[in-house]
């Protein structure tokens, strides 16, 4: 089987561990959001790709939920001592090594997809990771700040303001002109199944789907398209999808997100099947809705979810 997964960061990473456990011997490709990417202190940082890479490699910190296990923060402390801004973005010493290798390769002219492949040779992820695009395209959030309406970088909103400033909308700068990274459209077109991970529907999956050509490739693939709800009992299991969805006019419920993704049968939508948590209900016209356990408490639970998705 060939399985292609659209994914964001932490939620996507947990789901991908489940795919890997459920599908030994299958060829799995993850198309990962790069809209959260940012350049800070001269370093190019790709948070979702790193969450997926570290998590698949068992190198992630489980308590903190992001970054490397066994991390230290000496470089960051030094930057703070110099008064180097921004000081609100946490950069661990081990993580900085990854950013240095990435930035150097990008500066030398390698596309991000080559950089990701090179980084992954060290980590043995078992899943092929592709950035959604090689082009720079960064999510900004429209907020009221300093007496005016402005667009700030997604990371500034998410990390500095803890998503506490009401979002009036999201703009992905550069997205309209972005092209899917090499291999992305092929991975969708030749997949037996396309899985939409229970990642943030707005700033993870929504951004991936905004790359011109990706939505059309999903509409046209002969494989089945199965989405997994990140919303259980009217709330995100983790993260801040509950503040992102209302900003785009979508109800925070499994039904709301299912309807937002829409039925492929209607043309224009994405889904053949929509998995919701066993205690939820959802009516999504044109979509086969199944209620199964959706809590990714451990790899076995995530793998069971994936087996349901593939059934
Ligand atoms: P981020 O990029 O690190 O924010 O992570 P993602 O966008 O990949 O995933 C965030 C989403 O994962 C949130 O909206 C959560 O609701 C969802 N999520 C986290 N854990 C679980 C889980 O155990 N089950 C389900 N169904 N969704 C989850
Ligand atoms: Ca993210």
UniProtKB/TrEMBL annotation:
Question: Which one Pfam family would you cite for this protein?
Answer: CofD
Q: Specify whether Transferase is a keyword of the entry.
A: yes
Q: What's its EC? A: 2.7.8.28
> What stretches pass through the bilayer?
none
Q: List, alphabetically, the InterPro entries matched.
A: CofD, CofD-like_dom_sf, FbiA/CofD
> MF terms per GO, please?
LPPG:FO 2-phospho-L-lactate transferase activity
UniProt KW Amino-acid biosynthesis keyword: no
Top-level class of the enzyme under EC nomenclature: transferase
UniProt keyword terms in alphabetical order: Magnesium, Transferase
> In this entry, which stretches build a coiled coil?
none
Q: Which PANTHER family match?
A: 2-PHOSPHO-L-LACTATE TRANSFERASE
Protein name as annotated: 2-phospho-L-lactate transferase
Source species of the chain: Jatrophihabitans cynanchi
